[in-house]
Amino acid sequence: ADLVFFGWESFDQLELTFPSQPDLDTVIPENYENIWQFRTGVERRLDDGWAVRLGYHYDKTPVPTESVSPLLPDNDRHGFSLGGSWASPGGRLRVDVGAWYLFLAKRSTEGRNRDGYDGTYDNGAFTFGASLGYRF
Q1: CA–CA separation, 110 and 133 (whole Å)
Q2: What's the longest Cα–Cα distance across the chain?
Q3: If I label 70, which of 57, 63, 84, 124 is the partner at 20 to 30 A Cα–Cα?
Q4: pTM of the predicted model as reported, rounded to 2 decimal places
Q5: What is the pLDDT of residues 43-54, one digit of tens each?
Q6: Strand 2-6 vs strand 120-121: parallel, antiparallel, or unpaired?
């Protein structure tokens, strides 16, 4: 388990510069906040080189409601991961697989977004990965 500090407070604005059309240049205030992320995981080693893993993390959004937009939508995140591995006798060959589901709760900006992007944002993600390794 661990706690991770993210210094998002330094992201106070997003500057857009268009060298060929300077009249489109703009600065978008973001005013992100610093946050802490909590992560934990467990591994269980089984017989014959097999192992399974389980993980969870909670990541509070650094984005104030006024800054949420289609450009940078965000909300508090819960991440769930599941994986496993197999290593051959002697450990020269290894196979790893893993999946991760990221759940973001719905977030409404109704009447609070500075640019009029009133709506409800509902996001999530699923990823899967696999690797094959050989040690010489």
Answers
A1: 49
A2: 66
A3: 57
A4: 0.79
A5: 999 988 999 999
A6: unpaired
User: H or E stretch including 133?
Assistant: strand 124-134
CB 80 within 8 A of CB 120: no
Q: How many residues does the chain have?
A: 136
Q: Which residues of 75-109 are buried (b: 16+ CB within 10 A; e: fewer)?
A: bebebebebbbebeeeeeeeebebebebebeebeb
Q: How far apart are the first and last CA of the chain?
A: 32
CA distance linking residue 30 with residue 9, whole number of Å? 9
What are the percentages of helix, strand and coil residues in the chain, rounded to 5?
10, 55, 40
pLDDT in tens, 10-35: 999 999 999 999 999 999 999 999 99
Q: Partners of 132 in the beta sheet?
A: 95
